[in-house]
Amino acid sequence: MTDRNQALVNAMAALGLGSKPQSLIGGKLVDGNGELITLVDPFTEETLFTYADAGSELANQAGNAARKSQQHWVLDYTAAARGQVMQDVSRVVLNQLENLATIESIVAGKPIRDCRVEVAKVAEMFAYYAGWADKLHGEVIPVPSGHLNYTVREPLGVVFQITPWNAPIFTAGWQIAPAIATGNAVVIKPSELTPITTVALVKLAEEAGLPTGLVNVLCGLGPTAGQAAIEHEAVRKVVFVGSPETGRLVATAAGAALKPVVLELGGKSANIIFDDANLKHACLGAQAAIFSAAGQSCVAGSRLLVQRSVHSKFIDMLSQGMNNITLGDPLSEETEIGPISNARQYQRVTQMIVKAKDDGASVLTRASSESTGYFVPPTVVDGLNNQSVCAQNEIFGPVVTAIPFDDEAHAIALANDTQFGLAGAVWTADLGRAHRMADAVRAGTFWINSYKAIHVSSPFGGSLNSGFGRSSGTDALAEYTSPKSVWVDSAPTPKIAFGYVPS
User: Fold this and answer.
1) Residue 166: which residues within 8 A CB-CB, separation 6 or more?
2) Of 219, 298, 390, 408, which one is the catalytic site residue?
3) Cα distance between residue 373 and residue 205, in whole Å
4) Measured in Å, how far apart are the chain's first and last C-alpha atoms?
5) Is the pLDDT reported for residue 500 higher than 80?
6) CA–CA distance, 178 with 155 (Å, rounded to integer)
7) Model confidence over 88-147: pLDDT tens digits?
8) pLDDT tens digit string along 260-315?
9) Residue 158, CA distances (Å) to 99, 114, 400 in order
């Protein structure tokens, strides 16, 4: 057994997991009985595990367990008590930070230092929403009829959540915390390629006091376990994080079952550099925007719009700077960029780079000495227009398409010339221009002289091919609750104008 495999086995054992991925249903780890799924270490390209798809039967069991536990959660716990349990979950997650980060790093191929940050953010998510658990107030509405009319916000019941392979534990916490804070139960299906940390997170939560069965984890495939979970009668809403292509399939399946969805999909975000910006600062920001996490981020600044007067200078700065970025073993403390998370995505990214060259682009690529692993070095594609394949399609790798613009109006037109609407940024010394750009660029999140700042307290989501709905901040509380309007006749003599009561 290699040191990497031993580290993975040790971390899983410390968290009470078995020797392979298993679903967690009603507080118990269970094996699937469907198609075999193979997990591969993206750094060594060696097999880590083979396990069976959860399938439809386990999905039905998960839905039943969630429905039962949700009633216990709302009837036997006060709102304040639910918040206290979530605070306890936050502390337990922090106590197991290193084991969780180690599993995430090996299975997903993410640099260990990034994984530590993401696990800490998951703990913060539970703490943040714990504070909201007993603060979900309704309102009194002064209706003209003289009635007392008030509203309450009620949990939906059971929510089904599907999370992606690029940030498994982060997106698990991002979705689970607001759902249970508002009184719901959850069935969650992480990507079949990266399921382990989601199971570990929920198991830790149960050890901290979360009722068993309140959150159930399905380790399996979308067409089997996912479809069955969508169709389960207890599920009242579906939340999906992933690609637009799969998002359409999920939305269609949910629509057929008359269930609402929240879709957190992809992006082709414009990172806009004006000639009056601090170019050194902007260059560092542009590198982080696209190269961090090996570009596997929905908000990646994958379209770099640079004012024409400084375009060549800025591309030179960017290409020189990326040569100093460290690629390597995700478990190494020095590694800044790990491999692409899986073989299929690696093939897609490399094919897109070939397409850019075929289309006549100037492709600047950092040298890489890695002999194994799904490594794509930082790459700048220059010389293509905004209608090119690389400019219009999400690549989801460390590849940025650089496009020059002439003035403010031109930058806005280019930024909005896409089917996505997730994020964007501007770098400028002109404060008025910065706010004009924030107003004009279609994006659910927009940064000024920075990039990728994100926090659980702020709403996140997009429009068009980037999806709809919001999955953080107080907006998520509305997504996971339903308002009920209550009318009380307060008149001394009831004002009923219809019907007859005999004397």
Assistant:
1) 108, 293, 296, 297, 298, 341, 396
2) 298
3) 33
4) 90
5) no
6) 11
7) 999 999 999 999 999 999 999 999 999 999 999 999 999 999 999 999 999 999 999 889
8) 999 999 999 999 999 999 999 999 999 999 999 999 999 999 999 999 999 999 99
9) 30, 32, 40
- The number of beta carbons lying within 10 Å of the beta carbon of residue 127 is 19
CA distances from 96 to 89, 197, 217 (A): 11, 11, 19
Q: What is the pLDDT of residue 2?
A: 84
pLDDT digits (tens, 9 = 90+) for 323-368: 999 999 999 999 999 999 999 999 999 999 999 999 999 999 987 7
CA angle (471, 474, 476) in 5-degree steps = 25
- Report pLDDT for 368: 73
> How confident is the model at residue 482, as a pLDDT?
97
A 10 A CB-CB count for 258 gives 6
Select from 238, 308, 242, 297 the least CA-distant residue to 274. Answer: 308
> Can you tell me whether residue 307 is helix, strand or coil?
strand
Q: Who contacts 69 (Cβ-Cβ below 8 Å, separation ≥6)?
A: 26, 185, 211, 212, 213, 214
Query: What is the number of alpha carbons within 13 Å of residue 479 lying toward its C-beta?
Result: 29
**CB-neighbour burial class of residue 226 (10 A; exposed 0-12, middle 13-18, buried 19+):** buried
The letter for the amino acid at 421 is G
| Measured distance CA(81)–CA(324) in Å, rounded | 50
CB neighbour class for 333 (10 Å; exposed up to 12, middle 13-18, buried from 19)? exposed
Q: What is the rounded distance in angstroms from the CA atom of residue 373 to the CA atom of residue 247?
A: 29
Q: Which of 342, 325, 343 is nearest to 334 (CA)?
A: 325
Q: Record the pTM.
A: 0.95
**Which bin fits 473, alpha (ψ -120 to 50), beta or left (φ > 0)?**
left
Residue 283 is a catalytic residue: no
Q: Which of 104, 192, 231, 264 is catalytic?
A: 264
Of all helices (H) and strands (E), which one includes residue 28?
A: strand 28-30
The DSSP letter of residue 444 is S
**What is the pLDDT, as a whole number, of residue 495?**
61
The C-alpha atoms of residue 381 and residue 295 are separated, in whole angstroms, by 14
Q: Which of 224, 230, 216 is nearest to 239 (CA)?
A: 230
Is 390 noted as a catalytic residue in this protein?
no
Query: Nearest-CA neighbor of 313 among 365, 337, 289, 277?
Result: 277
Residue 498, pLDDT score? 61
Take residue 408 and report the two structure tokens written for it: 């403010």
